[in-house]
């Protein structure tokens, strides 16, 4: 795939071309995600976007909408974690006048506003158990009632959902309905953390430097090599959102057109440790999550290796180095992973 830093223009829409807007990078891990997004965009399937906070789940949701046949219809966003629990039902499904204290007028909910379009339920794992049956009904039947009304409303809405939480574990703990989880998890898309695609950091840095230079009016013309190296090597626990905020700060503080290093004190030492950890681990938790989401299938187009943008043998090598073992795996799997030690795979790196 080519550079994804391209906004979809009106002409592109007329030609039927769907571009990824504001998604920066060309790494194999990111390309694997974008290929999945392209594949599912033209369908009506529900998509569950998974990933750590700050990885760009909303951008992927908007890209799926933009590439879908509904691109010229409403794209309605709901942050389920930001709305008080006692108001969330009203926000999603609307209410009639007098339905509760303070309901002085009739109000349409987000599902009605998204009719014929797409609704994006961000942080869907924060929806309370008491409200989940009503959401399940919309997913299954595309119908609901406003608060305070017995009239059934019918909608045609494509649902995209996102969360940083482990919904499967929440189901086991009784914190999330299993039937709702399986309805949402029709087509999962797992976003890699920034530390798993560190080769995209320079493109992201350049993009945000250009963006904030224009917005703030403090032109940055040079990024020192050691600053870029430190940024690329940093662990980025806050992912792209953390990088964006630090670059904005650096642009504000820049003098003589040179970008200062915005990382914490002694950033080179921190970066060295982070780089060594990233190269050694490549995010053990992310690989585990991908393996579990793939049913521990390693090879093939739907296997974990393809989703991570890695060769099958490379993934087996990393599993061995990180001590990742399949629960209750067979003796055959033991032998398969054991064969791929560092001497046998050294030619691939």
Label the CATH architecture of the largest domain: 3-Layer(aba) Sandwich
Q: Cα distance, first to last residue? A: 22 Å
Strand line-up across the major sheet: 2-3-6-1-7
**Fraction of residues in β-strands:** 5-15%
CATH class (first level) name of the largest domain: Alpha Beta
Spell the H/E element sequence: HHEHEHHEHEEEHHEHHHHHHHHH
Q: How would you briefly describe this protein structure?
A:
By secondary structure, the chain is an alpha/beta fold. The chain has 17 helices and 7 strands. The protein has helices at 10-14, 28-41, 57-67, 85-93, 110-113, 132-141, 167-172, 178-184, 201-216, 225-233, 239-253, 267-281, 284-293, 304-308, 312-322, 331-339, 342-345, and strands spanning 47-50, 75-79, 118-122, 143-145, 152-154, 158-163, 187-190.
What characteristics describe this protein?
17 helices, alpha/beta, globular, 3 domains, disordered N terminus, Rossmann fold, five-stranded parallel beta sheet, Helicase, Ruva Protein, domain 3, 46% helix, 349 residues, disordered C terminus, two-stranded antiparallel ribbon
What does this structure look like?
The protein is an alpha/beta fold and 349 residues long. It folds into 3 domains: 10-190, P-loop containing nucleotide triphosphate hydrolases (Rossmann fold), CATH 3.40.50; 194-280, Helicase, Ruva Protein, domain 3, CATH 1.10.8; 284-348, no CATH class. It has 17 helices and 7 strands. It has helices at residues 10-14, 28-41, 57-67, 85-93, 110-113, 132-141, 167-172, 178-184, 201-216, 225-233, 239-253, 267-281, 284-293, 304-308, 312-322, 331-339, 342-345; strands spanning 47-50, 75-79, 118-122, 143-145, 152-154, 158-163, 187-190. The strands form 2 sheets. The chain has a 5-stranded parallel beta sheet. Mean pLDDT is 83; it is low at 1-18, 267-273, 330-338 and 340-349.
């Amino acid at each position: 795939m080519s550079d994804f830093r391209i906004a979809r223009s009106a002409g592109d829409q007329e030609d039927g071309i769907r571009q990824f807007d504001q998604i920066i990078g060309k790494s194999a891990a990111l390309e694997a995600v974008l290929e999945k997004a392209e594949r599912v965009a033209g369908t009506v399937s529900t998509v569950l976007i998974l990933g750590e906070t700050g990885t760009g789940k909303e951008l992927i949701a908007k890209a799926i909408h933009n590439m879908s046949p509904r691109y010229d219809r409403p794209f309605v966003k709901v942050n389920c974690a930001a709305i008080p629990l006692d108001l969330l039902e009203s926000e999603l499904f609307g209410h009639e006048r007098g339905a509760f204290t303070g309901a002085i007028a009739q109000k349409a909910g987000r599902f009605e506003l998204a009719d014929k379009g797409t609704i994006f339920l961000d942080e869907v794992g924060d929806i309370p158990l008491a409200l989940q049956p009503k959401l399940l009904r919309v997913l299954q039947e595309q119908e609901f009632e406003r608060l305070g009304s017995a009239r059934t409303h019918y909608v045609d809405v494509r649902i995209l959902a996102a969360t940083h939480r482990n919904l499967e574990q929440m189901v086991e703990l009784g914190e999330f309905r299993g039937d709702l989880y399986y309805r949402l998890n029709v087509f999962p898309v797992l976003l890699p953390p920034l530390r798993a695609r560190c080769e995209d950091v320079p493109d992201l840095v350049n993009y945000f430097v250009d963006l904030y230079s224009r917005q703030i009016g403090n032109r940055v013309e040079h990024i020192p090599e050691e600053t870029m190296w430190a940024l690329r090597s940093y662990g980025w626990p806050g992912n792209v959102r953390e990088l964006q905020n630090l670059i904005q700060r650096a642009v504000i503080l820049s003098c003589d057109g040179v970008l200062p290093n915005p990382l914490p004190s002694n950033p080179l030492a921190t970066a060295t440790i982070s780089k060594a950890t990233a190269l050694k681990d490549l995010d053990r938790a992310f690989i585990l999550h991908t393996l579990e989401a793939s049913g521990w299938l390693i090879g093939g187009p739907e296997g974990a290796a393809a989703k991570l943008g890695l060769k099958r043998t490379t993934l087996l090598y990393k599993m061995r180095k990180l001590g990742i073992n399949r629960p209750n795996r067979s003796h055959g799997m033991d032998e398969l992973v054991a064969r791929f030690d560092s001497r046998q795979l050294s030619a691939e790196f």
